[in-house]
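User: Fold this; tokens only.

Assistant: Input:
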Amino acid sequence: MYTSKIAGLGAYVPENIVTNDDLSKMMDTNDAWIQERTGIKERRHIKKGDGNSTAKMGVKAAKIALERAGLTPKDIDLIVFATLSPDYYFPGCGVQVQEMLDMRTIPALDVRNQCSGFVYAISTADQFIKTGMYKNVLVIGSENHSGGLDMTTRSRNVSVIFGDGAGAAVLTKAANDEGGILSTHLHSEGEHAMELSLEGPSTERWVPEIIAENPQENIPYYPYMNGQFVFKNAVVRFAEVINEGLEANGLTAKDINMLIPHQANLRISQFVQKQFRLSDDQVYNNIQKYGNTTAASIPIALTEAWEEGKINKGDLVVLAAFGSGFTWGSAIIRW
């Protein structure tokens, strides 16, 4: 068995900043209301004509990660692309990245595990490397939420939360004494799938059918979230899967140097931080600036934490996520 390690990180967010005050001009909300419930001050949204899409943002993040890893697109053996907002129903974003980066004929797969997508993608890449099948894997998490949000008072509980952006990591084969990904832990619970969901458009409910059948005030092709129910489940599953990862490696919360939680809600992150008795220096949050970027949130935060010198060689880094599905997971990494 081999060990996989993160050799390069990159992140990209659109230049267009949307503040809480900007949203208050579109819906009945205000800065204090949003910050109290989510901790979010602003987020980035793709702007028409800025040349961005889910795949294109992923490519921008990937180029940075590849350069930092000292690799070229030709060195990559596999692409794993995590998103809930692909440019098309099909083909997936993975093959778009392959074409945009002029990569050789390699496999590309897309992961559809929403907020847990990047952890699932990291775990997938890790397994391929550990078995010796591939040496270098490009993992991307990217989201374009803004194009599918209902920016009216009707959906303010959901629409104020989400932002656009992308993050990427290059995983490569490493010697056992170099550190790397110690273990990953994945779970799902389908019985609660519809508590955080988007019913249509889909093969079950195409847009024309929805418009014809439903009054304008109840359109199911906008995201739905049972916020309180999701919050209650999130804080439980975060703690469980972090503990699972620590115990699997004979570690405790005292060994954590940096926890990078999925940026779903600052209140969730603060609750988990308190549970594990971690200091502010041991937990990285940037939801205040970017909102919830779903599969992109962990790689963006991980990249920023590393760029700011908050992650150093030998540190124990824990990634943890919970989201739609319900799905959740963790990755325990020795940097």
